[in-house]
């Protein structure tokens, strides 16, 4: 793995496992059960968030703080992009401030790759368009590994708006590389058959438009939000919840050990019912948030240690 984290596509089992192992080791720090680390003391991380975010942005800031790094944050509403400055020029100016790494979220698919070709510091993708969300994919894998004991051999369903989901793309890459079987489930308008080719392991991916027939043998089920901001609303019917929502009745048909996941934000009563989302026995939604801090700590450590020596001053 290079000093950047731009996508999970192309990472092998060893590289993915190394990041997950390090995140697992850092989890006590993320949970505040162990003292904060100082491994990145003196480093400065820029967080450029040109799309709205709660969990990812705050998680990266928390991860940097728990490693002893300082953060600066720029959002689109407060940036000169509103005056016509280009995405790349903004990043180049931020780098010129002397930052040690750039974490970027953008609606531009391939935006982080563009930055990585032009800046000297490490670039970490916090979500780009419909392309990938690599740290979300890693935290989903960590959640499954910790809850189920192993990823290899697990059967994981990803349900909902998969066509627009960078979360699904990253999860499919990572899970299949680590040996899981993934079922992509959703309406035909949000689940083209071509998505099976998201991974070099298409034999580990199945496509289905019927949620009810896929509940009985799962180790994990990940519900996705319908992305109205990417025009997905026009691709679903008024009966979406009836066909693809994880209702209380459907949850009762899951194996007792099956966990429920969601990357957030949750549209309660649409993709997941309240009592399913809040079921402490099954739901891993809040655990995913905590695991995200540990994963982002591991990624920041890796990229900064691979990227450059600490700056003076």
CA-atom Rg in angstroms? 19 Å
* CATH homologous superfamily (4th level) name of the largest domain: Aspartate/ornithine carbamoyltransferase
Number of strands: 9
- What number of domains? 2
Overall spatial form: globular
Q: Average pLDDT across residues? A: 92
Helix and strand run: HEHEHEHEHEHEEEHHEHH
CATH class of the largest domain: Alpha Beta
Strand arrangement within the widest β-sheet reads 7-6-5-8-9
CATH architecture annotation name of the largest domain: 3-Layer(aba) Sandwich
Q: What's the end-to-end separation, in Å?
A: 29 Å
Based on secondary structure, the structural category is alpha/beta
Runs in which pLDDT lies below 50 for 5 or more consecutive residues are 309-313
In which range does the helix fraction lie? Answer: 25-40%
CATH T-level topology of the largest domain: Rossmann fold
Largest sheet: 5 strands, parallel
Helix count?
A: 10
Which percent band covers the strand fraction? Answer: 5-15%
Summary tags:
313 residues; alpha/beta; Rossmann fold
Describe this structure in words.
With 313 residues, the protein is α/β, with parallel strands linked by helices. It folds into 2 domains: 13-131 and 289-307, Rossmann fold, CATH 3.40.50.1370; 134-288, Rossmann fold (3-Layer(aba) Sandwich). Helices cover 35% and strands 14% of the residues. It has helices spanning 13-30, 55-66, 87-96, 111-118, 134-148, 166-177, 240-244, 248-251, 274-277, 285-307, and strands at 44-49, 70-75, 101-106, 123-128, 155-159, 181-185, 205-208, 220-223, 259-261. Helix 2 (55-66) links the parallel strand 1 and strand 2. Helix 1 crosses helix 5 and helix 5 (134-148) packs across helix 6. The two termini are 29 Å apart. 49% of the residues are buried. The model is unreliable at 309-313 (pLDDT under 50).
């Amino acid at each position: 793995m290079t000093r950047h984290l731009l996508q999970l596509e192309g990472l092998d089992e060893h590289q993915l496992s190394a990041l997950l192992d390090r995140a697992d080791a850092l989890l006590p720090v993320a949970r505040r059960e162990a003292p904060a680390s100082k491994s990145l003391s003196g480093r400065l991380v820029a967080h450029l968030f040109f799309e709205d975010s709660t969990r990812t942005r705050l998680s990266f800031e928390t991860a940097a703080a728990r490693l002893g790094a300082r953060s600066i944050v720029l959002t689109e509403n407060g940036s000169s992009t509103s005056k016509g400055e280009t995405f790349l020029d903004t990043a180049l100016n931020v780098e010129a401030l002397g930052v040690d790494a750039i974490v970027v979220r953008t609606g531009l698919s391939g935006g982080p790759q563009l930055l990585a070709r032009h800046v000297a510091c490490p670039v970490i993708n916090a979500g780009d368009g419909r392309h990938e969300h690599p740290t979300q994919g890693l935290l989903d894998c960590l959640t499954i590994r910790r809850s189920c004991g192993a990823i290899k051999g697990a059967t994981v369903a990803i349900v909902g708006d998969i066509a627009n989901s960078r979360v699904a793309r990253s999860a499919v890459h990572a899970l299949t590389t680590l040996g899981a079987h993934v079922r992509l489930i959703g309406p035909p308008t949000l689940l083209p058959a071509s998505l099976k080719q998201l991974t070099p392991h298409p034999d580990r991916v199945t496509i289905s438009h019927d949620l009810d027939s896929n509940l009985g043998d799962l180790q994990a089920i990940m519900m996705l939000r319908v992305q109205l901001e990417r025009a997905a609303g026009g691709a679903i019917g008024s009966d979406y919840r009836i066909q693809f929502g994880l209702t209380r009745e459907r949850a009762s048909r899951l194996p007792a050990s099956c966990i429920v996941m969601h990357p957030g934000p949750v549209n309660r009563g649409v993709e997941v019912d309240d009592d399913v989302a809040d079921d402490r026995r099954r739901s891993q939604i809040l655990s995913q948030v905590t695991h995200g801090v540990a994963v982002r700590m591991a990624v920041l450590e890796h990229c900064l240690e691979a990227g450059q020596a600490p700056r003076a001053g």
